[in-house]
């Protein structure tokens, strides 16, 4: 009997609906298998296999119920159960084969073939379970077509089961799978011929299950499918709520993390796998001065100097990829305003489960100020080393010059009245005095001296150091002086003022690389009670104002405000210490005045030093002329002098000058030798000793003499710019090199010092 055209349409539709519903539910359940843990994975796999296998089995028997057969039909219980088992087992096996972490096309095709053949086996097992009074025949051509349809539908089911897809794609796949499975059944039924016979059953076979039992079984299978669908829906709803809650918590956590990351006080940034910036903290943006939209998505090397970018690309990035971290790499970063910042960068790499780089977490430390301080310290150490070297050289030069000056004075006194010889001696003396002045300036550079303020004729001081300034600034700079007549004297340390002027001249030279003019001017200025903008911190009074003006590049407001700060400099590395203007500022402030700077970009700079005026009485201090007169009066004296010096040339020259002044001289070549002479009981009116001697310094000798003879005057002769810190306040200082008049003046002062309990009162006339 031909089965086509004898089906109940309603039951056909029901069979297709069961296949589609089972396919959808099974695909939904199978999609949970890869994400589940071991126990849950087995549960989802078993449920999906029962739903899909049971759905296929139910679809088959509902379709068989749709047949209109004239003969009564029953089903063999064993074969019916076997057909159900085949459907569930092959479906579960195919889903298990496809649920592994890595599924290839070959494994999907193998699972599809296995499931398809199993479904065909289930179909024909179910057909074999029919008990009819006659023989059922099948056309092999339709069997082959049904097998291909089953394999194609099964392969599609396996592929869809573990593929990420949307709800619409899942519904479409379920329709295709359900219709494909139903189609396989009806294609197979096209090639099936059922016998037409009487209503009697085959007598030699025990009665099986009838249509009512089949309906009950199909209903149970359908119930299982619906229950599984309901369970999946409940699980989906619960999972959806959990996912929403987790998504909310994740968004809140992400927002907190983003807020914390951005507002942290540390300069942080993160990079993606290509080295481009993903996130930056506000502190990072504040450090470099950029906006967030200007940096996100750009390579970090865009904000580095060329050398730093090269080291980052060639050395540090490969090291980070290899070891996973980078510690304290030093870079120079360029801020938005053009400033170059010294920064230290540390980074840690994050990788995925397969070891691929996903992002890099980085932190910066700005060490610009620390590097500047270190550089300033190095410069200061260099200056200290140069100062010590210069001081030692200057001391030796002063000893040599002391011999030269002393011998020249003696030679000048005893030379015959030959004009040519006198001129040569005078020229030699001037050269020696110029060398002595240069040595004193070297000592001023080398050591910081306590200020010794005195009335200073500033125009004369400037003119006296004109040669030194010209040699210091070079021939491309022209120096002009503007000093009005009748200027008062300023009260300041002359040596320190020379150093300050030289520093200002060198700064002016550096501001004029193409040459220019330096103008040194002076004026007397009165600060009134209401003050002036540039001098408002000075108390009202009369001041001496010395100014140095250049025609250089000038300074902007920010640079001008910081110009006098210690260690601040706009010069390149190794070209300045940033201490020059700070020294000038300190000198002016310590002297009772002030340093005032005024400048405009492109218009040059003016540095004005305000100094207090010298008192009128200071102008009447005893000068060299008075001492010269005293020297003439005291010549012929018979004071006894003990001279101590380890240099035989200096000792001989000093003794010769003293003998020429008619002093009685005893020589000692060391401190121990001098103490040995004193221990013999010899009387002396004064001791003249050198400071730098091996074994015992002049200060140590003076202390030993104080213990033996407290009232014996001591003169300390030294070629250094300042006395040692342990020098006794009562010790007179005689700077080397010295001449006859300076030597006689020092001895006269030491031997005629009034006792400590005598106070000189001014004489009153009338």
In short:
The protein is an alpha/beta fold and 766 residues long. The protein is 53% helix and 16% strand. Helix 1 (9-30) packs antiparallel against helix 2, helix 2 (38-65) packs across helix 4 and helix 5 (140-161) runs antiparallel to helix 6.
pLDDT average, as an integer?
Answer: 76
> What number of domains?
5
Structural class: alpha/beta
Helix fraction?
40-55%
- The gross shape turns out to be rod-shaped
Total of helices: 22
Uncertain runs are: 197-206, 531-536, 572-579, 616-636, 755-766
| Main sheet summary | 5 strands, antiparallel
Overall strand count: 21
Over all CA atoms, what is the radius of gyration?
A: 55 Å
Distance between the termini: 170 Å
Oligomer: single chain
**Strand order in the largest sheet:** 6-5-9-8-7
- Taken as a percent bin, the fraction of beta residues is 15-25%
């Amino acid at each position: 009997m031909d089965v086509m055209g004898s089906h109940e349409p309603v039951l056909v539709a029901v069979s297709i609906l069961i296949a589609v519903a089972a396919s959808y539910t099974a695909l939904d359940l199978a999609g949970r298998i890869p994400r589940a843990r071991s126990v849950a994975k087995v549960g989802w796999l078993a449920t999906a296999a029962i739903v899909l296998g049971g759905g296929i089995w139910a679809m088959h028997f509902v379709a068989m119920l749709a047949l209109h057969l004239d003969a009564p039909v029953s089903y063999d219980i064993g074969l019916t159960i076997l057909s159900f088992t085949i459907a569930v087992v092959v479906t579960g096996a195919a889903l298990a084969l496809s649920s592994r972490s890595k599924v290839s096309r070959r494994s999907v095709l193998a699972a599809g073939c296995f499931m398809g053949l199993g479904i065909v086996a289930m179909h024909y097992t179910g057909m074999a379970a029919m008990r009819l009074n006659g023989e059922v025949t099948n056309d092999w051509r339709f069997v082959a077509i049904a097998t291909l349809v089953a394999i194609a539908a099964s392969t599609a089911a396996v592929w869809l089961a573990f593929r990420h897809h949307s709800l619409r794609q899942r519904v479409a796949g379920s329709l295709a799978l359900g219709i494909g499975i139903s189609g396989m059944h009806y294609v197979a039924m096209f090639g099936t011929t059922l016998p037409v016979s009487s209503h009697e059953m085959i007598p030699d076979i025990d009665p099986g299950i009838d249509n009512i039992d089949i309906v009950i079984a199909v209903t149970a299978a359908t119930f299982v499918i619906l229950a599984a669908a309901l369970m999946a829906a409940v699980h989906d709803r619960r999972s959806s709520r959990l996912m929403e809650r987790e998504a909310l918590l994740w968004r809140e956590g992400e927002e907190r993390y983003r807020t914390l990351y951005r507002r942290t006080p540390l300069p942080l940034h993160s990079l993606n796998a290509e080295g481009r910036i993903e996130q930056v903290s506000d502190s990072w943006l504040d450090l470099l001065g950029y906006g967030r939209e200007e940096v996100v998505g750009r390579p970090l090397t865009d904000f580095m100097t060329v050398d730093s970018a090269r080291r980052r690309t060639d050395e540090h990035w490969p090291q980070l990829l290899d070891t996973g971290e980078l510690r304290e790499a030093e870079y120079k970063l360029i801020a938005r305003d053009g400033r170059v910042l010294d920064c230290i960068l540390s980074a840690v790499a994050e990788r995925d489960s397969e070891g691929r780089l996903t992002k890099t977490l980085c932190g910066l430390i700005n060490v610009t100020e620390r590097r500047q301080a270190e550089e300033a310290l190095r410069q200061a150490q260099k200056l200290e080393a140069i100062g010590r070297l210069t001081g030692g050289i200057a001391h030796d030069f002063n000893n040599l010059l002391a011999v030269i000056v002393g011998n020249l004075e003696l030679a000048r006194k005893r030379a015959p009245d030959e004009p040519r010889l006198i001129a040569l001696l005078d020229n030699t003396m001037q050269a020696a005095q110029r060398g002595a002045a240069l040595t004193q300036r070297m000592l001023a550079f080398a050591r910081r001296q306590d200020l010794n303020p005195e009335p200073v004729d500033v125009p004369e001081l400037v003119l006296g150091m004109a040669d030194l300034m010209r040699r210091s600034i070079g021939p491309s700079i022209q120096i002009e002086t503007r000093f009005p007549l009748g200027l008062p004297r300023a009260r300041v340390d002359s040596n320190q003022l020379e150093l300050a002027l030289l520093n200002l001249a060198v700064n002016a030279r550096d501001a004029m690389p193409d040459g220019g003019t330096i103008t040194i001017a002076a004026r007397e200025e009165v600060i009134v009670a209401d003050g002036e903008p540039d001098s408002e911190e000075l108390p009202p009074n009369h001041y001496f104002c010395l100014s140095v003006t250049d025609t250089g590049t000038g300074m902007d407001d920010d640079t001008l405000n910081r110009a006098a700060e210690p260690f601040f400099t706009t010069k390149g590395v190794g070209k300045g210490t940033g201490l020059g203007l700070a020294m000038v500022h300190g000198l002016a402030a310590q002297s009772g005045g002030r340093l005032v700077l005024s400048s405009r970009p492109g218009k040059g700079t003016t540095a004005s030093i305000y100094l207090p005026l010298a008192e009128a009485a200071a102008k009447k201090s005893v000068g060299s002329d008075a001492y010269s007169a005293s020297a003439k009066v005291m010549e012929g004296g018979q004071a006894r002098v003990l001279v101590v010096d380890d240099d035989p040339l200096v000792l001989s020259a000093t003794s010769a000058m003293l003998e020429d002044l008619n002093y009685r001289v005893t020589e000692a070549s060391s401190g121990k030798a001098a103490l040995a002479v004193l221990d013999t009981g010899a009387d002396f009116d004064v001791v003249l000793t050198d400071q730098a001697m091996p074994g015992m310094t002049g200060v140590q000798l003076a202390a030993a003499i104080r213990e033996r003879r407290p009232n014996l005057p001591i003169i300390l002769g030294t070629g250094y710019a300042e006395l040692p810190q342990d020098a006794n306040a009562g010790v007179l200082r005689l700077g080397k090199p010295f001449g006859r008049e300076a030597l006689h003046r020092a001895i006269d002062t030491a031997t005629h010092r009034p006792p400590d309990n005598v106070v000189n009162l001014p004489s009153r006339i009338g």
